[in-house]
Amino acid sequence: MATSDVAVQEVGSQVGRRRVINDFSLQVATVNGSGSQSANTVLLRTIFQMGVPVSGKNLFPSNIAGLPTWYTIRANKEGYIARKKEIDFLVAMNPETAREDTLSLAAGAAVLYDEPLNLKSLRNDVTFYSVPFDKLVVPVCPEPKLRKLVKNMVYTGVVAHLLGLDMGEMETAIRRQFGRKQKAADLNVNAAKAGYDYAVSSLEKSDPFWIEAMDQNKGKIIIDGNSAAALGSMFAGVTVVAWYPITPSSSLAEALIDYMRKYRMGPNGKPTFAIVQAEDELAAIGMVLGAGWAGARAMTSTAGPGISLMTEFTGLGYYVEVPAVIWDIQRVGPSTGLPTRTSQGDILSTAFLSHGDTRHLLLFPASPEECFSMAGDAFELAEQFQTPVFVMSDLDLGMNNWMSQPFEYPSKPIHRGRVLSKQDLDRLGGFARYKDVDGDGIGYRTLPGTDHPAGAWFARGSGHNENAQYSERPDDYTHNMDRLLHKFETARKFVPPPEVTGSGAQVGILAYGTSHWAVKESRDQLRKEYKIETDYLRVKAFPFTQEVHKFIAGHARVYVVDQNRDGQMRDLLKLDVDPSQAVKLRSVLHYNGLPIDARSITDNIVSQEGK
Amino acid sequence: MASTPASQPGAKTNRIGLTTIEYKGGRTTLCAGCGHNAISERIIDAMFEMGVKPERVAKLSGIGCSSKSPAYFMSRSHSFNAVHGRMPSIATGALLANHNLLAIGVSGDGDTASIGIGQFMHLMRRNLPMIYIIEDNGVYGLTKGQFSATADLGSKLKTGVINDLPPIDTCALAIQLGATLVGRSFSGDKKQLLSMLKAAIAHNGTVMLDVISPCVTFNDHEGSTKSYKFTKDHDEPLHDITFVPSFEEIDVEYQPGELIDVTMHDGSRLKLHKLEEDFDPTDKVRALTRLAEAHEKGEVLTGVFYINTKAPNFVELLNMPDEPLATLPESLTRPPKSALDECMEALR
Predict the structure, then answer these.
(1) What is the pTM of this model?
(2) Which residues in chain A are contacts of B80 at CB distance < 8 A?
(3) pLDDT digits (tens, 9 = 90+) for A45-56
(4) Distance, in angstroms, between A479 CA and closest chain B CA?
(5) Does the bond joining A248 to the residue before it have cis omega, within 30 degrees of 0?
(6) pLDDT, tens digit, 9 for 90 and up, residues A230-261
(7) Which of A471, A491, A511 is where one domain is finished?
(8) Which member of A77, A172, A238, B329 lies 3.0 to 4.6 Å from A233 by CB, making a disulfide possible if both were Cys?
(9) CA A239 to CA B334: how far, in whole Å?
């Protein structure tokens, strides 16, 4: 029966001659909570181990179990790892979505489906493979309760045969996935083999998609941005972490807990850190500010709703001038929004988060490597500038698996900023907390507990003078606010500079964060398909450095890519550049909750260029 | 810099050689006769008599009249005047960074029982080693006299408005949630308040003191249940309190059975001379029952309601090292390159 189900369609047989190697997207549609994550990770890792550039993106619902979920794996020999719009190979395991998923494919795609779904009658321009998963799983999994989970590993084996994956690599990936759980590993290896054997004996390959081993991934690692941020924070010497669970940031704190318990136990067996699950985000940021005030390297991680709750406290941090690091793993808002979908929607609100005149330092990581390095940058900047620093990651970066170069060990020693010790005070006799001694707007502080009678200062959110004394005097207020602005201006010279590529084109593209990967691919599309040459600047921080202004000044038009509705980065730039330059900024927007793809950018720019 | 008062020659010194003037703060800007000023004075007395080094103290507060008061005592101590109702989280963070600090938080009934009730409750739950004082007058002073959530049922504002909601008993909440030294006092009772503050300094865990502190401007009239007169008339002390610090030998003679003698964490002794025979402040359930009875009877019950010297505090639960996290050297806070290599290898 199975063999006869392999409908070698007309289109299928035509494209069957053509081989599409290492350039396609595979999507697995399953039910949330069915254990498909392990199977999908195994598929991803198998392709990775075969040396083919690959990315995996999990599109999941805000639900514990039962709702549909999709996992998309893109393999690409050119190294394009952004989401690809079209799905080439569908693994349909979810009755609820199978029909719609199949109907939305482009002609020439392939569908591997669970036999009872009986999809092949839906259309005749895609290749169908029907597999009786329930029958295949019985002999390899005697325990009926586990069959629902193990069934997923069977499709990895089927896919392995159809795409030409190396079964040895797949077994390695499975054993790695289950770690020391030998029995579970054996069970899953057998399940994959059962799928593979079935495919060998019963399915006839008639789609064009193949994976062939390459040599592109030597030395690379696979990691999600949140784990990278956790590692970066640990190696940056974080000592106090306060957090409140919220998708998609919880895995950052949880990864940090795991790493710290392993690598940050002191010589006496006591932790060199404190991690507290707070009662809410208000308390989390309060603890971070209290700890920062008392001298710890303190951080929290959250998402949009948490950022909103932290508004008042981060204004206090800015005004009292206390270091803090806040990770915003952005998700779709406003309000609860789409909590499991990605966005860059918090840029504007976070840049000015507070009431009153406030500007915060923001960092924009684009990769796990930058999550790692910017975790260190964030602490250095927070302590150097005595202010909260926000790291603006997003769900796509934070929760998905990315290929990455291994991280580099920090090359510079930790710098704690301008903190006066007892010995300094003995020498100086005293100090004025908010006095601009060095002309860069940054004052000197002491930590509570400094054993000197002139060491104390009064941290207060109310108006204060240079000596941190309560003041409502107009000149004290403006003097202090002007110094804070001066400090912010100083930061322009110290934040990570942008990455600029290309030279001499009329058209500039400016992007940040995860848009980078789609922009990279889009620039090639623009060049190859439309002969549009572009220069590219990737912003890594706010305030904007001189290079950003230069880039805009040096181009006739600058397309600003934002993963939000309102063009928030464009607006932030408009506030910073000369009005004569602001008119050059054009928005390329993407805000449907899915990671941005190259084709959307290309089409948008082509249309705005009038081509 | 906050002005540092210089000591006067010949003035009485404490066990670390400081005079009271070295515990003073700035000039108060609160109303003359405000209960909060008396509490600031008692804090100065207690810190002086206990010989606490001002540099070791961290003063914390939220927003309101009460929360301004840390500026009026101990200028040589660091202080953090935070946002409304959120002092507990600042205190928690500060103590995680440096648990050698002696943290004293001053809040009000609005700052604690309304906007700050969530953080207050979680602070109590964690038994964070700090002193938390509520300067409780039943009204919002800075915004000109609205009721707070500790105002008693039937209490009357100057404008004639009657409070028709029941009060939150912060002491009952604190006991139930896990604070380990809980009591109520009155800003006008110097002796009792001073003894309780000294015990608070000696205690190793969350101390929650609700101090009735009349607002002379907005809530000291006939019909108020937080006025000086009402509090004096209805004050029901549970016991006479004597606090004997670890560094003093003095002892007080009492008949057996009349006295509850609690040895505190630092060896100090808290001696409670029973005025109510069946009251035992180590009995949590009895303490809660007695507070409920006081509400029924309209008493302003004062004294130490609950003490537990054994429960681990939050710093102990976290198994924190002796040296403050804030000043750990890089050699302890940045793992070696081999650790990163190992992490990378595991991800290949």
Answers:
(1) 0.96
(2) 290, 293, 320, 459-460
(3) 999 999 999 999
(4) 17
(5) yes
(6) 999 999 999 999 999 999 999 999 999 999 99
(7) A491
(8) A238
(9) 10
